[in-house]
Design goal:
mainly alpha, 2 domains, 15 helices, 0% strand
Length: 389
């Protein structure tokens, strides 16, 4: 994979008659266009892959008409949406209605600029990249609310209100769950976090934090079982009810790019990024392939969740954020802080303590939630039944 620095050095020699700052800007534009083009293509292919996988879970063939194994289905869908009429409701706020999908897609693409896919492969490297990523992803809640509010549709507005409440609620435990890796790596840079996992990935050191982050990220994506904001059975389509044509396609592309980004970010934060697995270091595998393999495994897990878990009610979703994930995130942060003070260099003991805590926490939560069964009331005979015939 060509890194940004390699491209910049090549263009400096090629465009020697231009100022270095201008060449730097040109390099950034070329790399940005290349990354965005690749991601849009990857998102299109992922739509086919997800539909095929979910179809196998549901014992049906899935897309199989266009091309071998239906692999040309994304192209057919894109052509269909391109020729559809672009309708804007008469009562809608036109400017906000148009801006919402653009903001949604831009924020989705922007976060990839800071993901270290390999050695020196990220477009930008800042010492607060983690804060930047968390901040950018939170803008999605704003774009979702803009789409629902501007539509002037009661179903879209209700879906947008649910989205804002849910997304803000799950951002808190997701951010707190990352405090542990920041404390261990002593860095907010994604590159620094990857380098801190050279010896052991954080998913082994902090399984509770990894679980909390992954579940909160699934909720942030509004994927099953947290897809209440666009539940077809209740809200028709949620905040995208009034969207059609390319605006609808932009929302769909952004939603399908979200699992890829979540898997990539989880790989960076908890799986060591492009670092090789310790007992397979002898294999001559490039870092970008390690990164892609780890991300693919996480993507498969996300698809498994979506295909097998039923949709939760909105009260269950909100309660799970504050009653389960938030205590888990705080407990993980507390454990990591105590371990750094007393047993900083004893990784074996840290793993034993954190794994034991993880198992006990899961056991307690399973028992507490498992006891909540639907209790049906005893049938009471009607007064009419007591009357003499």
């Amino acid at each position: 994979m060509i890194s940004f620095n390699t491209l910049n050095l090549f263009l400096v020699d090629l465009l020697f008659f231009l100022p270095d700052k201008l060449v730097f800007i040109i390099s950034g534009l070329i790399m940005s266009v290349a990354i965005c083009t690749f991601l849009i293509g990857l998102g299109s292919v992922y739509t086919w892959f997800e539909r095929r996988v979910i179809a196998r879970f549901q014992n049906r063939p899935g897309p199989n008409r266009w091309g071998p194994f239906g692999i040309l289905q994304p192209i057919a869908d894109a052509v269909k949406l391109l020729i559809k009429e672009d309708i804007i409701p008469a009562t809608a706020d036109k400017m906000v209605f148009i801006a919402a999908p653009i903001i949604f897609l831009c924020t989705t693409l922007l976060v990839y600029a800071f993901l270290p896919l390999g050695i020196d492969s990220q477009l930008g490297n800042t010492n607060v990249a983690l804060l930047f990523v968390l901040g950018i992803t939170s803008v999605n809640a704003l774009s979702v609310f803009m789409a629902g509010w501007a539509s002037r549709n009661k179903y879209a507005t209700l879906g947008a209100i649910r989205a804002v409440a849910m997304l803000i609620s799950y951002e808190v435990p997701m951010a707190v769950s990352l405090m542990g890796i920041v404390m261990v790596s002593q860095s907010l840079s994604l590159v620094g976090i990857v380098n801190a996992q050279a010896s052991i990935p954080f998913i082994i050191l902090q399984p509770l934090g990894a679980m909390t982050f992954l579940i909160a990220a699934i909720a942030e994506m509004s994927r099953a079982p947290f897809d209440m904001i666009e539940s077809e059975s209740e809200l028709i389509g949620g905040y995208i009810t009034e969207y059609a044509g390319m605006k609808f396609a932009i929302f769909q592309l952004s939603e399908f790019l979200a699992p890829i980004f979540t898997a990539s970010l989880f790989t960076v934060l908890f799986l060591g990024g492009s670092n090789s697995i310790k007992f397979l270091e002898f294999l001559p595998i490039p870092g970008i392939l390690w990164f892609a393999s780890k991300s693919f495994v996480i993507t498969a897990i996300l698809l498994w969740f979506r295909s097998t878990w039923p949709r939760l009610r909105i009260d269950q979703i909100m309660g799970f954020a504050w009653k389960v994930l938030m205590p888990a995130a705080i407990l993980n942060t507390l454990l990591v802080g105590l371990e750094l003070v007393f047993i900083r260099d004893n990784y074996i003991l840290q793993i034993i303590i954190n794994m034991s805590t993880f198992v006990v926490f899961i056991y307690l939560i399973a028992n507490i939630l498992g006891q909540k069964r639907l209790k049906l009331k005893e049938p009471v005979p009607s007064e009419l039944a007591k009357m003499d015939a």
